[in-house]
Amino acid sequence: MTSSQGSSENINEPSPTTSKDASDKSKSTDHMLSLNAKISAFFMWNCMYIVCAVVGLSLYIGSIIYPKIIGVYFVVPYLTYTFFLRRDEMKYGNPWPAFSRDFSPFRAMRSYLGLEIASPLPEELLKAEERNNVSGDDSQRQQFIFAVFPHGTASDYRILMEGILHSILPNIASKTRTLAASILFRLPLVRELSLWTGCIDARRNVAEHALDGGHSLVIIPGGEAEQIRTTHGKEIVYLSKRKGFVKLAMRKGNVPIVPMYVFGCSDHYKTSHALFGFRLWLVKNLGICIAFSAGLWGSSCPLPVKTTIVMGKPITFQMKVEGKPTDEEVQEAHKVFCTALESLFNEHKDRLGYGDRKLEVI
Q1: Among candidate residues 318, 314, 315, 348, the one with its CA nearest the CA of residue 129
Q2: 93 backbone φψ class: left, alpha, beta (φ>0; ψ -120 to 50)
Q3: In this structure, how many other beta carbons lie within 10 angstroms of the beta carbon of residue 65?
Q4: I want to staple 110 with a disulfide (CB 3.0 to 4.6 A). Which of 83, 115, 282, 337 is the partner?
Q5: Are 129 and 172 in contact (CB under 8 A)?
Q6: Which one, of 131, 156, 151, 154, lies nearest residue 141 by Cα?
Q7: Which residues of 251-271 are buried (b: 16+ CB within 10 A; e: fewer)?
Q8: Quick check: 255 and 192 in contact, CB under 8 A?
Q9: Would you tell me how many other CB atoms lie within 10 Å of the CB of residue 10?
């Protein structure tokens, strides 16, 4: 539902739970879902996309056809409000935890995808959660940067993951924001969904402001460059040139980076590389990603693939001068992170049913 930008230069059920033994779960839950469950997910997810599209197009087209009515009474007030009066995305956002956690379509889609964060969680996160709960002092709050891979075709898991974080790590999640593409905050209703699920603008100054304010961040470093390369049946991450999030962490007090991998999201949609060269040009030059993909029954609803998020241990890096990393130190830190992500993938791939796959880092 949302697309998150990666680098700091332009900085992606009954109840949410963790998986105690993901080894018993197969790669796809398709055979475990009834036809009614698939039909419900199909209509629910596609309706959300359709409603968002209809609202935006109606306001745009309506302001052209009826400028004195739609334009004056709806579009102008909305743009004035979002551009001048309430720029929440440029500050600390406007999260609505209960919405992320309990909104019925989100709960249903988490169940449909079998989405869960695997346990045990890293001990460092559990200790930080406890400290944050006991102290109640924002100045003593432990911060993290959660670096999530891969982006996937639509990063549907991102908007659904927010509610799980609020359930299993409520004290950390309450001060965590997700960096999202600027364009999302220009689209009516999409903007509201993004803000309510903890998103802020992906610009570097916004990310720095959030960290300075004691917040943790969720970043999908691969961004559109990774999104356009998503291939069904393969695990591809665009990381070799993504050093901005590492530099950001080092510059802002050596904030620990938590590597995260989402097993299953690469298979949420069937993909095509038709016109790849042209679409890649659009990404590089215009920042527009057009994914050729198809989900359940050819729709925008993801395929019913079991989706498990794994978290690695938080990583801090070495530097001679605190907050002033050299290019060489950033390069070395980036290598450390790449190694940690590959190790995280290899550690969990067999028990999650992806033993035949190799992580491609490009």
Answers
A1: 314
A2: left
A3: 9
A4: 115
A5: yes
A6: 131
A7: bbebbbbbbbbbbbbbbbbeb
A8: no
A9: 18
Greatest alpha-carbon pair distance for the chain in Å reads: 62
Asked if residue 274 lies in contact with residue 292, where contact means CB atoms within 8 angstroms, the answer is yes
Q: Is residue 158 a contact partner of residue 194, using CB atoms and an 8 Å limit?
A: no
Q: Which two tokens stand for residue 254?
A: 């050596």
14 falls in which pLDDT band (50, 70, 90)? very low
Residue 218's H or E segment, with its range, is: strand 216-219
The residue length of the chain stands at 362
Cα–Cα distance between 314 and 317 in angstroms, integer? 10
- Give pLDDT tens digits for 126-142: 999 998 876 556 667 89
pLDDT of residue 8: 39
| 287's tokens | 């920042």
Per DSSP, the three-state class of 149 is strand
Q: Is 145 helix (H, G, I), strand (E, B) or coil?
A: strand
Of 129-138, 180-189, 196-205, which one has max mean pLDDT? 196-205
DSSP-based three-state secondary structure for 353: coil
CA dist., res. 37 & res. 328, Å (int): 52
Among 26-30, 45-49, 255-259, the least confident range: 26-30
225-to-6, 232, 253 alpha-carbon distances in Å? 9, 16, 28
CA-wise closest residue to 237 among 160, 341, 346: 341
Q: What is the pTM (predicted TM-score) of this model?
A: 0.89
For 1, the enclosing helix (H) or strand (E) is: none
Give the pLDDT confidence score for residue 32 in this predicted structure.
Answer: 72
| Residue-wise pLDDT tens digits, 268-313 | 999 999 999 999 999 999 888 999 999 999 999 999 999 999 999 9
Structure letter (DSSP) for residue 84: I
Per residue in 208-243, pLDDT tens? Answer: 999 999 999 999 999 999 999 999 999 999 999 999
Q: Encode burial over 190-218: b for 16+ CB neighbours within 10 A, e otherwise.
A: bbbbbbbbbbbbbbbebbebbbeeebbbb
Q: Which residue type is seen at 316?
A: T
